[in-house]
Amino acid sequence: MRAGKVTRGRIGVSVSPIPREAVDEFGLKNRSGALVRGVSPDSAASKAGLEPGDVIIAFGGKPVPNRDELVRMVVNTKPGTTISVRIARDRQERTVNVTVDELDLEQETTLARGRDPQNDPAQETSSGFGITLQNVTPDIARRLRLEVPRGAVITNVEQGGAAARAGLQPGDVILRVGREAVASAADAQRELARVPAGGTAFLRVFSRGQEQFVTVTKE
């Protein structure tokens, strides 16, 4: 270590507080923990198998009360340390081992902010969420660097609508709605239509080169 350099840890996730409406969906007892919204490719978290939509409930055997505390715990962990991470996924708890990376402060600051809502114009809406969808074609999959041409690509987002407020934008690809995988725009529309007005859709979305977990409240 160079003189004067302070090393800090990172695991390569963007995290957010747990939405109130997600407690029952995730099978949690309360809102303690941190919701994984995105996992950086080739990061410590990715190598350990963490996924968007996981809830980190303990880090190194210590309970995680909230997102900010998790960030503090990770940053204060020496890079190269392998540490146990307790997560909740699909209403079940499991433990994975994560070898902590060294913090790139600029990159981690960007990740910690999460997704900033983008207001984009739209001419049509779909399923009450203010989005227009189409099938992912091989050409779209190639341009977005998707491994397989599956999912529903968002072509328009209604300005000020539910999807825009959640940070969705044209070019994002919906891969899953709730626990259902999405193979086409029809699949996505069918699952989104099942969400009642005022209810919350839990989406797995491919955006900006990585998968993200996004919650959208239907209008």
The main pleated sheet reads as: 6 strands, antiparallel
List low-confidence stretches: 107-125
Q: Order of SSEs, N→C?
A: EEHEHEEHEEEHEHEHEEHEE
In percent, how helical is the residue content? 10-25%
| Count of DSSP-assigned helices | 7
User: SS-based structural class?
Assistant: alpha+beta
Give the domain tally.
Answer: 2
- The appropriate CATH architecture of the largest domain is Roll
Percentage of residues in DSSP E strands: 25-35%
Task: Give the quaternary arrangement of the chains.
Answer: single chain
What are the SSEs and their pairings?
Layout: E1 9-10, E2 13-16, H1 22-25, E3 34-39, H2 44-48, E4 55-59, E5 62-63, H3 67-75, E6 82-89, E7 92-99, E8 101-102, H4 105-113, E9 131-135, H5 138-144, E10 152-157, H6 162-165, E11 173-177, E12 180-181, H7 185-193, E13 200-207, E14 210-217
Antiparallel strand pairs: 1-8, 2-3, 3-4, 4-5, 4-6, 6-7, 9-10, 10-11, 11-12, 11-13, 13-14
Written description of the protein model:
The chain contains seven helices and 14 strands. With 219 residues, it is an alpha+beta fold. The protein folds into two domains: 9-113, PDZ domain (Pdz3 Domain); 131-217, PDZ domain (Pdz3 Domain), CATH 2.30.42.
Looking at this protein, list some descriptive labels.
219 residues; alpha+beta; Pdz3 Domain; six-stranded antiparallel beta sheet; globular
Q: Quick gist of this model?
A:
With 219 residues, the chain is α+β, with helices and mostly antiparallel strands. It is built from 7 helices and 14 strands.
